[in-house]
């Protein structure tokens, strides 16, 4: 039997949240690095998922170069687009360990609870109410 590319692509996309993967940097933008996980699967590494150190976040574009291998963890999965959202730390497992386990089918944002400490970027200061808008994800 000869496999078609459709059959092959379905079989290649077997990932789970929190899974460790190795990817190779394809390109780097202001807030994203695109990685090749396999011939058919790509991953997106958002700047806030690379570090909690502000100086490292400011140097995002300088820290990664095309062809560089990266050890990453899957934060969420988009099967339709065959795309993985990646992070450099196993934040999924850290949140699960804190709570004594979780459903591995649930992505990062299904695991965040009130009181969790996670990284973010201040995108707006609300001076009249003493508040902040903090970005914790790309959307």
Q: H/E series, N to C?
A: HEEEHHEEHHEE
Radius of gyration: 17 Å
Task: Detail the poorly predicted runs.
Answer: none
Give the helix/strand class.
alpha+beta
Q: Which band does the percent of strand residues land in?
A: 25-35%
**Could you give me the name of the CATH homologous superfamily?**
Nucleic acid-binding proteins
Spatial arrangement of strands, main beta sheet? 1-2-3-5-4
Largest sheet: 5 strands, mixed, barrel
Mean pLDDT, all residues? 78
Based on Cα principal axes, name the global outline. Answer: globular
How many structural domains are formed by the residues? 1
Report the CATH C-level class. Mainly Beta
Q: What would the CATH topology be?
A: OB fold (Dihydrolipoamide Acetyltransferase, E2P)
In angstroms, what separates the terminal alpha carbons?
43 Å
Got a strand count?
Answer: 7
Amount of helix: 10-25%
Named CATH architecture: Beta Barrel
Total number of helices: 5
GO molecular function, one term: RNA binding
Organism: Nymphaea colorata (pocket water lily)
InterPro entries: NA-bd_OB-fold, Rrp5, S1_domain
Protein name: S1 motif domain-containing protein
What does this structure look like?
- This protein has a single domain, classed as Nucleic acid-binding proteins (OB fold (Dihydrolipoamide Acetyltransferase, E2P), Beta Barrel), CATH 2.40.50.
- The chain is built from five helices and seven strands.
- The mean pLDDT is 78.
- The chain is α+β, with helices and mostly antiparallel strands.
- Helices cover 22% and strands 32% of the residues.
- The longest helix has 9 residues, at 91-99.
- The strands form two sheets. Strands 1-2-3-5-4 form a five-stranded mixed beta barrel.
- One of its GO terms (biological process) is rRNA processing.
- One of its GO terms (molecular function) is RNA binding.
- This is S1 motif domain-containing protein.
- Residues 18-89 form the S1 motif domain.
